């Protein structure tokens, strides 16, 4: 099932990456890559965040002390998550799915970078809960955005 979803994601994201009025060259190597602007990359980002939630050692706490979250990586994710309603409105107005696809790619890149610097496991509980809430928020948005373009978000790879 996972490989089917990844294959569909690869094709859908490749197709929606370009504006509707532009032609693009179909390239299997580019589509199936896990790096760069591809469907498998987005699915991997979602699955990685799901794995983080399962293995974090703490539960998602909506009352976590978010004042403990500081730094450029946090700021970038918070700003991207906050932009999601505007991205949806823009996508609806322009009828260009490329808007939401590019947004998801930006969010996935920001999350990937942040995961290297903002560890959750092995941190004091208050910091771990705050960071997990940040990553949970990003995962929820990514899941919603994947669903909006007709894809089934996968939870493990």
UniProtKB/TrEMBL annotation:
It comes from Coemansia aciculifera. The gene is SYR1. Its EC number is 6.1.1.19. It is an enzyme of class 6 (ligase). It comes from the Eukaryota. This is Arginyl-tRNA synthetase. Keywords: Ligase.
């Amino acid at each position: 099932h996972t490989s089917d979803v990844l294959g569909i994601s690869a094709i859908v994201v490749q197709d929606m990456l370009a504006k509707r009025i532009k032609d693009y060259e179909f390239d299997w190597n580019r589509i199936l890559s896990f790096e760069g602007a591809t469907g498998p990359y987005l699915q991997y980002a979602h699955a990685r965040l799901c794995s983080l939630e399962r293995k974090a050692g703490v539960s998602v706490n909506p009352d976590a002390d978010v004042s403990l979250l500081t730094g450029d990586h946090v700021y970038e994710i918070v700003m991207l998550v906050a932009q999601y309603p505007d991205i949806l409105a823009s996508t609806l107005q322009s009828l260009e799915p490329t808007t939401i696809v590019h947004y998801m790619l930006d969010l996935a890149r920001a999350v990937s970078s942040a995961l290297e610097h903002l560890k959750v496991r092995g941190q004091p509980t208050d910091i771990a809960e705050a960071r997990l809430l940040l990553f949970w928020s990003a995962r929820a948005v990514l899941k919603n955005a994947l669903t909006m373009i007709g894809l089934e978000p996968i939870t493990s790879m």
